[in-house]
Amino acid sequence: MHRAQRRVLILGGSSEGFALAERLAREPSLYVISSLAGRTRTRRMPVGEMRLGGFGGPDGLKTYLADEAIAAVIDATHPFARNMTHNAAKAAAAAAVPIVHCWRPEWRRGTRDRWIEVDTMTEAATAIPDGASPTFLTTGRTDLAAFAGRSDIRFLARVIEPIRPEAPNDVWPAQLAFIYARGPFRYDGERELLESRGVRCIVTKNSGGSAARAKLDAARDIGLPVVMVRRPPKPAGRHVATADEAVDWLFRILGDGIPPVADTRAL
Ligand code: NAP
């Protein structure tokens, strides 16, 4: 690292996080560190330095920001990574380091969509219509336990890699099969999957973005109900919707040496 470089921490876990690392690592005035939770055994590697694993709550992150002389934080975690987002907001405020939260826009319901919108995974489990077997779960491994009470439903869960319950009280649905795949997913493949498996309902989080959107388009065209879990509340503070906007924010905050995205757009 050059002594004059400003150190930027990207809290990753989303496609925006990888795009930001790639874009910012090209700036000679910046030194970019991407932080990942390290939950999956196989992972995409960000451009630039990477660190893995939690910081030990807001206090741990506050200490890290000071020790590593971080000049700015971009929270590009997934919109459902509630703990990390709130920890980051608290730690950055305590360490007086500027932070922006980058959350892509939510998916919006169209006129032909059959969405049942709920606020929690528990509500999602209750909202699955009776007899909707199999129900396709794309909620991620940490949310499987919420569906254990629906012993009347067969579930098909899509996860990135083979998993097993992590805690003794992590009880999964009795009728559960897995599909292993990592996005992005395309319309033709999603439609084929839903039709060939005879899926009757989908449960998903309102993650937004294009990589996981195709299943909603296929569900709409087949006429399937989708139980859509709304996003958790955002922390107060500065929010942007795209990686480009986050780069513009960083340029304004750091003030020198970084050309605005409009001049160099190459993401
Ligand atoms: P979470 O509940 O917000 O995070 C739990 C703990 O994991 C945090 O308190 C933090 O530990 C650690 N952590 C999370 N993100 C981290 C990061 N980028 N760098 C370092 N530590 C991190 O998050 P989650 O829902 O378990 O998700 C874990 C990761 O997977 C996130 O980075 C997220 O972006 C990504 N992801 C999540 C989802 C989802 O639906 N939740 C979907 C796709 C990707 P400490 O408190 O010890 O710092």
Quick structural summary:
With 267 residues, the protein is of the alpha/beta class.
Write up this protein.
Helix 1 (15-24) crosses helix 7, helix 2 packs across helix 3 (82-95) and helix 5 (187-196) crosses helix 6. The protein is α/β, with parallel strands linked by helices and 267 residues long. The protein is elongated, with a radius of gyration of 20 Å. It folds into two domains: 6-105 and 232-263, Rossmann fold; 114-229, Rossmann fold (3-Layer(aba) Sandwich), CATH 3.40.50. The protein has helices spanning 15-24, 57-67, 82-95, 121-127, 187-196, 214-222, 243-254, 261-264, and strands at 6-11, 30-36, 49-52, 70-75, 99-102, 114-118, 135-137, 155-159, 176-180, 201-205, 225-229, 238-240. The structure holds NADP nicotinamide-adenine-dinucleotide phosphate. Residues 11-14, 35-37, 39, 54-57, 60-61, 77-78, 80-84, 87, 140, 205 line the site of NADP nicotinamide-adenine-dinucleotide phosphate.
